[in-house]
Design the sequence.
């Protein structure tokens, strides 16, 4: 699935807003997901190669926001159940297995 420029902008903003709602630092998120800060920035700016990685961060942030008894900012492009998208690997997303390296 390819996002158009507006969807990319919206998704980057939605990731950032949910990150801010989580109250976590970038280091905490990177540590929890076992990735580098550079990799986290790459994913948050949708510059990564894997389509699964943004979904993993999305789900992680939603969980953290809900754990604070807050309502996450809805995602407009990364919406619905990732298990139903043929182009995603739902097993990898469920295991929160982000791709290796910084891309």
Sequence:
């Amino acid at each position: 699935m390819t996002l158009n420029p507006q969807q990319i902008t919206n998704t980057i903003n939605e990731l950032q807003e949910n990150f801010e709602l989580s109250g976590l630092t970038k280091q905490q998120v990177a540590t929890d997901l076992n990735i580098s800060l550079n990799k986290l920035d790459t994913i948050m700016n949708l510059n990564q190669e894997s389509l699964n990685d943004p979904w993993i961060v999305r789900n992680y942030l939603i969980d953290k926001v809900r754990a604070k008894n807050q309502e996450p900012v809805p995602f407009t492009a990364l919406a619905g159940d990732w298990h139903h998208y043929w182009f995603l690997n739902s097993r990898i997303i469920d295991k929160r297995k982000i791709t290796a390296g910084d891309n």
